[in-house]
């Protein structure tokens, strides 16, 4: 591992229903004995900024229903907007705080982060593996039907809506295309490889790159 840090991060970007967050991310965290962050990062961000968590969560949810992401491209440049600022409730402030927390976390611990454009936020850090997970639309629909116990129509609506949001979120904050393979170290098809094989492949990549092996390897 690079001498700059004894910690590493796995940044996962995934399409809805591909299993990246609901299985692979949690499996990696369990195997390495490290923390798993997704929306949990919101709580850390608010603790860091001294701001009510509910405000952040409401802002995050509200942005899913707007077209702001399609109208602007505001790339993260490291600026932190003070809590007392009149613009604090803007989604950019939320993103900036989350980015700050992700960078600071890496100086204290290893972790898995799913979403939150972590691959972009941490792209200059030497001890990071960025992974993009995808599968066919049909596979993802079936996976969400089984995972949530919902109908075909409901699963398609859920996937379409969430993928649009994730694509817009990524473009808005990074100025880059969400599904561009050049953004990532690994791009894996969870349908063709299977969840466990994808996990194994990511862990093998980490072993080759950093010389780190999982502390405890178990199948969920």
Uncertain ranges: 63-76, 78-89
Computed CA radius of gyration, to the nearest angstrom: 17 Å
Overall form = globular
Q: Enumerate how many helices there are, as a single number.
A: 10
User: How do the strands line up in the largest sheet?
Assistant: 2-3-1-4-5
Proportion of residues in helical segments: 40-55%
Describe it.
The radius of gyration is 17 Å and the shape is globular. By secondary structure, it is an alpha/beta fold. The two termini are 28 Å apart. The relative contact order is 0.22. The longest helix has 23 residues.
What's the structural blueprint in terms of helices and strands?
Blueprint: E1 9-14, H1 20-32, E2 35-37, H2 40-49, H3 53-63, H4 68-71, H5 91-105, E3 111-114, H6 118-121, E4 128-134, H7 137-148, H8 152-174, E5 186-189, H9 190-193, H10 195-210
Parallel strand pairs: 1-3, 1-4, 2-3, 4-5
Helix pairs in contact: 1-10, 2-5, 7-8
Summarize the structure.
51% of the residues lie in helices and 11% in strands. It has ten helices and five strands.
List keywords for this structure.
220 residues; alpha/beta; five-stranded parallel β-sheet; 5 strands; globular
């Amino acid at each position: 591992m690079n001498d700059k840090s004894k910690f590493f991060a796995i940044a996962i970007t995934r399409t809805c229903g591909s299993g990246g967050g609901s299985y692979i991310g949690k499996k990696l965290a369990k195997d390495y004995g490290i923390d798993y962050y997704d929306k949990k990062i919101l709580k850390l961000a608010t603790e860091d900024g001294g701001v009510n968590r509910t405000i952040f969560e409401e802002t995050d949810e509200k942005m899913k229903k707007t077209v702001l992401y399609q109208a602007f491209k505001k790339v993260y440049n490291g600026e932190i907007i003070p809590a007392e600022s009149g613009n604090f409730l803007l989604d950019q402030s939320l993103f900036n705080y989350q980015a700050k927390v992700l960078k600071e976390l890496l100086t204290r611990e290893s972790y898995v982060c799913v979403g939150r454009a972590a691959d972009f936020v941490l792209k200059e850090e030497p001890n990071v593996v960025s992974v993009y997970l995808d599968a066919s639309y049909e596979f993802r629909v079936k996976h969400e039907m089984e995972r949530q116990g919902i109908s075909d129509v409901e699963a398609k609506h859920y996937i379409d809506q969430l993928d649009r949001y994730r694509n817009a979120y990524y473009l808005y904050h990074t100025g880059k295309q969400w599904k561009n393979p050049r953004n990532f170290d690994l791009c894996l098809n969870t349908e063709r490889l299977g969840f466990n094989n994808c996990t194994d492949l990511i862990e093998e990549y980490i072993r080759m790159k950093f010389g780190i092996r999982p502390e405890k390897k178990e199948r969920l």
